[in-house]
Amino acid sequence: MNAKNLHLFLVFIFSITGAFSQNPGNIGAGNLTGWFKPDALPLGNVTTWSTTLSTLGTITVTDATAPYPQATNTPAGNVSNYNTTLYFNNNSTTNLKGLGNTASINLMQNNSTTGQGTLFCAYYFPSGGGNNNHMMLWNNSPHAIQLRNLGANGRLGIGLGASNSVNACRNWTESNFPTIVSARGNRSSTTSLNLFDNDLLTTNTVASQSSGATGLYLGYFPGNATSPYNGYIHEYIFYNTNLTAVQMRRVHSYLAIKYGITLDLTGGGVQGDYTSTNDLLLWDASVYPIYHNNVIGIGRDDNQALMQKQSHAFDDNYRLYLSTLVANNVSNAGAFLNDVSYLMMGENTAGACATTASNLESPTWVNSRLAREWKVTNTNFNQEFNWDVKIDTCQVPGASVGAVNPANFYLLFDDDGDFSNATTAQGGTGPFYFSYANGYVTVHGIGNIIVPVNSTRYLTLGYNAPEITLSSNASICNGDSVQLTVNMNVTGAQNVSYSDGTNTTLLSNISDGYTFYVSPTVTTTYTVLNASNFFNCCGASGSTSATITVNQLPTVAALASLNPICVGDSTQLTGSGALTYVWDNGVNNGNFVSPIVTALYTVIGTDVNGCVDTANVNIVVNTTPAVGATASQTTICFGDSIILNGTGATTYTWDNGASDNVYFFPVSTTTYTATGFNGTCFDTASIQVVINQLPNVIAYTTDPAICLNDSVAVYGAGAVSYTWNNGVTDNVYFSPI
Length: 737
Known about the structure:
Elements: H1 3-21, E1 32-36, E2 44-45, E3 48-50, E4 60-62, E5 70-72, E6 85-88, E7 99-101, E8 118-124, E9 133-140, E10 143-149, E11 153-158, E12 169-173, E13 179-185, E14 193-197, E15 200-202, E16 204-205, E17 215-218, E18 231-239, H2 245-259, E19 274-275, E20 281-283, E21 296-301, E22 306-308, E23 310-312, E24 318-321, E25 341-347, H3 356-360, E26 374-379, E27 385-390, E28 409-414, E29 423-425, E30 433-437, E31 440-446, E32 456-463, E33 467-470, E34 475-477, E35 482-487, E36 494-499, E37 504-510, E38 514-518, E39 524-528, E40 545-551, E41 557-560, E42 565-566, E43 571-576, E44 580-583, E45 592-593, E46 599-606, E47 612-619, E48 621-622, E49 628-631, E50 635-637, E51 644-647, E52 651-654, E53 670-678, E54 681-692, E55 698-701, E56 714-717
Parallel strand pairs: 34-40, 42-48, 50-54
Antiparallel strand pairs: 1-18, 2-5, 3-4, 5-6, 6-18, 7-17, 8-13, 8-18, 9-10, 9-17, 10-11, 11-12, 12-16, 13-14, 14-15, 19-20, 21-22, 21-25, 23-24, 24-27, 25-26, 26-32, 27-31, 28-29, 28-32, 30-31, 33-35, 35-38, 36-37, 36-39, 39-40, 41-43, 43-45, 44-46, 46-47, 49-51, 52-53, 53-54, 55-56
């Protein structure tokens, strides 16, 4: 071989070994049959996806017709942790988005007793994505893999045997969070196949296996009407050997850090640990496991081409990043100073706000701190980083009044998780400082003084600001005012805004001890928006808010047992609707009064809360009438009529059935009594009417028959006196003609 050819050969060997030097976990590329990673894919329609590395040569899967899967590094919610992912959305048989290769590809052997192979899949399956979603199908009969999602469970089936077998299938519980599912082994026995769900060995077996067309298919099962996958595929890695537990942990760590996935620690021991390509322990899950939640990391590991400059928790409640946070990882302008350099962080599950307990477990000069705490591990990371924390605020302060003051923030850091003796740091103008926007506190420029190289530290945030306290009883009556006092734990005049839940009021340039009055009409909580209530939203005792209980006034009534009354009568006065009562005019509640003229009485009622109301009752006093009784005649003959009249009152009633001022015919001598009324007051008077009976008169004559010119006399009997018609005089002779 001449020198020129030798040079070309060495260049070729260098290019091959250089390309193969970067592989997942740096476990070597000799058995790496397929590494599908999406980093280099053009954004948008994905018509082809080729392996980054494969001992079989380049393997390409294609989608020949539209619509196509989408490559995106800004998916909704950044579910791929700012990295590129393939999105299979609205995927269906009629609008199929799938990538396939129909060739026989010898990725591994898993149908024989001696067969070996290891698979890694990083994906995110959203809730509501449907059933029988095929993430991947590979068939090189009799060796095969079927990886699908059945809604509540994911399922791995391997090999093409004579029948379904529990040796050939494992299920895992679908969490609908970013997930790493990995498998190794073959279907020859009950223990020869291992499935791992986020590093947790899963033993949920069901009788099944793989099936389908020859080739490799991502996002669908050819010919299966219900197979189109609706979700995200981050990365696939295939080996034709069974990786060791150490090797698998490296690859799990690589995928977890890259895609923001928390490994499962429930198996204990080293399970859930994160390691580098040279087996440095990046995150020890067994050290204070309460912090093993939402574990994320940034790091550089050239052996596996990992360059994760920014990461966030899946719910985006906190973020780590170099330089300035941008839309995707590849656009971050930051740089790692060291290779194999990592910063890992996890959190406890407490609220991102203050509690009474968390406020007590803090240095005395910090009056409020988050209950949520973070564990951070530094591995060869000798530079500054930035940290965003989303705060569970009662209400986000407005930008124009009462904005959060970054000068009031503290970073608390400690080496044992007990923050009562934590070291604190306040920001300045840079490089270490705080900012607040859109519900997030950002701690800029956290350096190695706070988190030294190759150390583990515990972090949380504190906040000092004005507080509001109640200077008097917190219970008032409707219509009253109450004084509130602003006490400050910071010096100098400040602008403080407070809210009553509806309106915001700005208090300009006030100092410690400033007082103001409020007059709520209903129970109201007054909250200082730029005070430590910015943190105190988890039931913390502290005084960033004051609740004024407004008791409504009692509904008092003034009652009189009799009303109206007559002169000389009494009536009882009582109040209702309150607890105690005070009457005017020296009257005690329940007393009888005897006014001689119409009078107004007022009662003041006080309820159990000390709230008062007043009520009035007007006692009408009527005079007693001087009643008289008159008749049109007091002596009459039987059959005659008379009229009775009452005098001295307004209305009258008569006994014996008579009516006032109405003629009637009495039949016997009777005394009639009139009752005269002025309102309810009355008097009586009587009058006797004498009834004389008619006489039984008989007419007589001296001679009932006489001659012309004779005289005769007529006379009556049965009466006292008589009157005759025709001019005749009783018992006097006359000569009728």
